[in-house]
Amino acid sequence: MRSVYRVSTALIVLLSSGVAAAATDKSFERTVAAQPKGVVDISNVSGSIEVSGWDRQEVAVRAELDEDVERVDVTSAGDHTIIKVVLPQHGSRHGDARLHVQIPKGSELDVSAVSADLTATGVLGVQHLSTVSGDLSSELAGADVEAKSVSGDIKLKGHGEPARLRITSVSGDVHLEHGAGDLETSSVSGSLVISLDTAHSVRVRSTSGDLRFEGRLARDATFEVTSVSGDLNVRAPAAGGFVYEITTFSGDISNCFGAKAQRESEYGPGSKLSGSRGDGAGHVRLKTMSGDISLCDRD
Amino acid sequence: MASPQDPRPRVSALRDLPQSIEPARDLWPLIEARLKETAATPAARPPGRRVPLSWLAAAAMVAMLAVGMWIGRTLLPVTVPGGGAALHVSNGTPSLDPATVLDASYVSDPRYERQRAALLSSLQARLATMSPETRDKVLASLATIKKAKEDLEQALGKDPGNALLQELLVNTYQDEMRVLTDVREASDPGRGI
Predict the structure, then answer these.
(1) Which residues of B113-147 are buried (b: 16+ CB within 10 A; e: fewer)?
(2) What secondary structure letter does DSSP report for A238?
(3) Residue A65 in contact with residue A28, Cβ under 8 Å?
(4) What is the mean pLDDT of residues A30-40?
(5) Low-confidence winner among A82-86, A280-284, B158-162 (lowest mean pLDDT)
(6) What does the alpha-carbon distance between residue B87 and residue B69 come to, in Å, rounded to a whole number?
(7) Is the pLDDT of residue B49 over 50?
(8) Residue A236: strand, helix, or coil
């Protein structure tokens, strides 16, 4: 009698789990051969995208798909691999697909998402990453990275290897840690929190988003930030020093080296602080309309 | 022009020039003496060639205006609809920052006006394809840009020649175009941003 109970209980558990799986997700798996330094192109509207680099010359795709998702296309031609989540032409445009993709670590990665969150780790090639409202997170590895978002947050973490970084956001916050090299970033209202181990050139623009920057400037580095109403807080020790020029129309200027800002004009608003630190090898220019500006060249 | 031997500091921007220059010595006594000397010998000038003071004043005005226009065209920022500034004097040679010249030309370019109008007219349709949360954030960002433009224009109204404000205004125009373009591309099926 006891064994009958056990068998029936096991059957019920098996049946119920199978029914549950069928009601929620479809799964998808496919592996294709790929070049070690090829291009991998991924697009997904909703859900998530996790990309990781590995040592194999293959692209492996594993996905859990909502019922609303029609299919996942994986095509490979030459050095180009394309992974595309396809939604029905007529009907829902918001079916979630949770993609887990492994690519040769030297690949160039090109990802486009709408509300899907994106995470990339261990990819050594160039990365072009874009989302609309999804959050974007990636590991930097010395190759150029372009990251774009409308309202999603962007989080990039490097290991101090120089690269060209281009980051743009509309309202999403930007967080860059241990980057290096050349940075160009802009945001309308998102905040910018940037740390660079060594910076050669930095160009930042914001409308109302605040900037907090910490980083060591290489000799002859250029550092330019403009903002309309965002506050700028810059801590940038520089090996060869720098010439600095800080101007604001109605904001306050402060610094850690005791220089005193001057009024731009006897008759109107505006203040300016300019001078030189160390050998004056680099150039620092900070400008705002109403945002406060703080500059320090100490660690 | 400053040469390597020239002790004068190198001027790289108009704002590097001094607001005023004090003469090495007081010139007024000499000027005063010359004026007295001229007043004492009125017959030296032929009667028909006397120039009324009002004409001298007008000529001085025209000369000042010409100098002002020359400064405005060569040294001061190029003013364009909606902003635009170029401000560089390098080694004594006035030159325009290429990026700023581009800014200036595109802001006044009818193609820019057309492109902006087209982007704005399609904005509603593009926003409709976005989730409510994203749509709200995009609208808030566009409102932030609009407010920034208004604030900058208001400040420029008080200080029209302010190069900083002009530069920030051009940046803000560019940011608006970037956001409108990003929104269009983000909602373009199969294209992404």
Answers:
(1) eeeeeebeeebeebbebbeeebbebbeebbebbee
(2) B
(3) yes
(4) 97
(5) B158-162
(6) 15
(7) no
(8) coil
Which 3 state secondary structure label does DSSP give B176? Answer: helix
Q: How far is A265 from chain B (nearest CA, A)?
A: 10
Distinct helix (H) and strand (E) counts, chain B: 7, 2
Q: A127: burial class by Cβ within 10 Å (0-12, 13-18, 19+)?
A: buried
What is the CB-side half-sphere exposure of residue A60 using CA atoms within 13 A?
10
Spatial separation of the C-alpha atoms in residues B19 and B120, rounded to whole Å = 44
- Cα–Cα distance measured from residue B176 to residue B189, given in angstroms and rounded to the nearest whole number: 22
What 3-state DSSP class applies to A293? strand
CB within 8 Å: A207 and B148 = yes
Give the other-Cβ count within 10 Å of A119's Cβ: 17
pLDDT tens string A189-211:
999 999 999 999 999 999 999 99
* Cβ contact A185:A167 at 8 Å: yes
The pLDDT assigned to B82 comes to 36
Check residue A13 and give its pLDDT.
42
Q: Do B144 and A207 touch (CB under 8 A)?
A: yes
CA distances from A261 to A177, A295, B21 (A): 31, 12, 22
DSSP codes joined into one string, B80-145: -TT-----EEETTEEE--HHHHHHHHHHS-HHHHHHHHHHHHTHHHHHHTS-HHHHHHHHHHHHHH
For residue B137, list chain A residues with Cβ-Cβ distance below 8 A: 133, 150-151, 170-171
Q: What is the ipTM of this complex?
A: 0.73
DSSP output for A158-199:
--S--EEEEEEESSS-EEEEEEEEEEEEEESSS-EEEEEEEE
Q: What is the DSSP letter of A105?
A: T
Out of A150, A171, A228, whose CB is closest to B168? Answer: A228
The model's pLDDT over A221-247, given as tens digits with 9 standing for 90+, comes to: 999 999 999 999 999 999 899 999 999
| Contact between B178 and A168 using a beta-carbon 8 Å cutoff | yes
A110 CB neighbour count, 10 Å cutoff: 20
- Dihedral pair phi/psi, residue B81, rounded to 5°: -60, 125
Q: Do A132 and B134 touch (CB under 8 A)?
A: yes
Q: CA-based Rg of chain A, rounded to a whole angstrom? A: 25
Tokens found for residue B113: 């006006």
Pick the residue from chain A with its C-alpha nearest to B178: A170
